[in-house]
Amino acid sequence: MSKKEYDWNLDEPPPRIKPHSIAKQKVYTEYIKEYIHTLNSNPLIPNFNIVIVDAFAGGGEYLTQDNQRHNGSPIKIIETVKATEKTINETRKKQFTIKQQYFFLEKKKANLDYLKNHLKNLEYDKFFDTEIVLQQGEFEKEYKNIIKQIQQKYNENVRAIFILDQYGYTDAPFSVIRDIFRRLPKSEIILTMAVDHLIDYIRDPEQTIDKHPELFDNQKQEEIKVKEGVQFQKTLKDKLDLDSRELSDIKKTERAWRGIIENLLMEKLQLFSNAKFYTPFFLSAENSHRDMWLVHLSNHSQARNVMTQVHWRVANHDKTKMNHYGMLGFHGKYEGADQLFNIEDFSFDQRSKEKMKVKHMEEIPQFLHNKPTAFGDFYNQVANNTPADKEIFKGYMKELLQHKELKIVGKEGEIRRSDIKDSDIIQIPPQMNLFKPR
Q1: How far apart are CA 112 and CA 8, in angstroms?
Q2: Coil, strand or helix at 145
Q3: How many CA atoms lie within 13 A of 130 on its CB side?
Q4: Which 3 state secondary structure label does DSSP give 51?
Q5: Could you please report the per-residue DSSP string of 268-289?
Q6: What are the backbone angles phi and psi of residue 279, rounded to the nearest 5°?
Q7: Helix crossing, 19-39 with 73-89: angle to 10°?
Q8: Cβ pair 385, 330 in contact under 8 A
């Protein structure tokens, strides 16, 4: 849940944490850990710079359902970075150093005071003003100042992760998200939104435009018009060609309604944010009717791949389920109301993985038909439309190679038998071209 639902006071116990928040922490920390490992896999790399901005930081401590103290995301993030640095050094002869910088922003003074006190109790106050910057204010008003501090200490190409764990999607308008990517090209954003706000958007996108013009500046309007033409201005009813009764029925069908959200809103979110790659999933807690939508936005396929790997590891953590809806295949696009009641529920379990394999093994040859493609380019083209990560795709390619349904050629003309590189050309063997897809 959003930090807006929590309040901290120094003379009171911390608020009780909800399952959603525990699951989100797991995603954040696993991603940061794997992100650092991936970018520093070369043992000759001596140091690494990383900036993490927790824009809705909260008080940094909770109570669990059994009254145990539980650290919030600021502490979890710091601990993860320091533990990862230690783990990397255990495997190296030469010292590896992470130059780390944290910005913890909180709107409420009482919450920030609690966070500061909790960090002191954990003896992290020795890093205040050097590694850890505590700042009070609203993210929309303070983000430019934070970016300025980052640029002064590093440069615009520093690796920066912005965690926007917000209540509604308007807490950090898309104009702000676009500006972050413009000012810090290698930045990434982990965006959390309440599903009920997304449903409001889907129910009446025209009303959303009227309420939130910051999402649609003049330049963006033109881009949208070019991409979607007059269809963009239509309401959900017109776009899906559904009458009021059918819309009502869909709202009662959990899987179909979430599928609508993911299929119709995701393309808009990518367009409004200017992010090239995205990874969305739903967090559904037991005994709760409130769902969260967590989206990772970036401009690098490597970052997207790492987040997808994290999904597979932390799915169905504790009492929280992670799901994709309508993302089983990458070849076809969503085509309207006929598919709404047959939307796939992808739960990152073995059953989903087996169904995904069948679907993708069928789609890969169709995708590559008459258009040989470098493996890296292939992954970049399909990444946003599949729960499969890069290694899973390599496994599919190797199996198709063994069955002689693919031919893989290195940049020097060498024929691949197993190992696949990003620059390798994936193509259909000549004899397979006789059987063109319908």
Answers
A1: 8
A2: helix
A3: 5
A4: strand
A5: HHHHHHT-SEEEEEEEEETT-S
A6: -135, 105
A7: 30
A8: yes
The CA-based dihedral angle spanning residues 326, 328, 329, 333, taken in that order and rounded to the nearest 10 degrees: 0
295, burial (CB in 10 Å: exposed 0-12, middle 13-18, buried 19+): buried
Which letter, b or e, does each residue of 193-221 get, where b requires 16 or more Cβ atoms within 10 Å of its Cβ? bbbebbbbbbeebeebeeeeeebbeeebe
pLDDT per position as a tens digit, 33-78: 999 999 999 999 999 999 999 999 999 999 998 999 999 999 999 9
- Chain centroid offset of residue 235 CA: 27
Identity at 361, one-letter amino acid code: M
Distance CA 135, CA 143 (A): 11
Contacts of 294 (CB under 8 A, 6+ apart): 24, 27, 190, 191, 192, 280, 281, 282, 283
> Are 363 and 329 within 8 A, CB to CB?
yes
Cβ neighbours of 280 (radius 10 Å): 22
Q: Are strands 345-346 and 291-298 parallel, antiparallel or unpaired?
A: unpaired
Record the tokens describing residue 65, joined without a space.
């359902």
Contacts with 301 (C-beta within 8 Å, 6 or more apart), sequence order? 276, 277, 376, 379, 380, 383
Longest Cα–Cα distance in the chain: 76
pLDDT digits (tens, 9 = 90+) for 366-417: 888 778 899 999 999 988 888 889 999 999 999 999 888 999 999 888 888 7
* Residue that the structure tokens 């890969």 belong to: 364
Q: What's the count of helices (H) and strands (E) in the chain, helices before strands?
A: 16, 14
Please identify every stretch of the chain with a pLDDT value under 50, giving residue numbers as ranges.
1-4, 201-209, 212, 214-216, 224-242, 332-342, 434-435, 437-438
Contacts of 27 (CB under 8 A, 6+ apart): 190, 294, 310, 311, 314
Say how far apart CA 190 and CA 280 lie, in whole Å. Answer: 10
CA 356 to chain CA centroid, Å, is 20
Q: Is 237 helix (H, G, I), strand (E, B) or coil?
A: helix
Burial class (CB in 10 A: 0-12, 13-18, 19+), 44: exposed
φ, ψ for residue 406, nearest 5 deg: -135, 155
Cα angle 196, 200, 206; round to 5: 160
Detail the DSSP E strand segments found in 43-142: 47-54, 61-63, 69-71, 97-106, 132-136
Distance (Å, rounded) from C-alpha 24 to C-alpha 355? 26
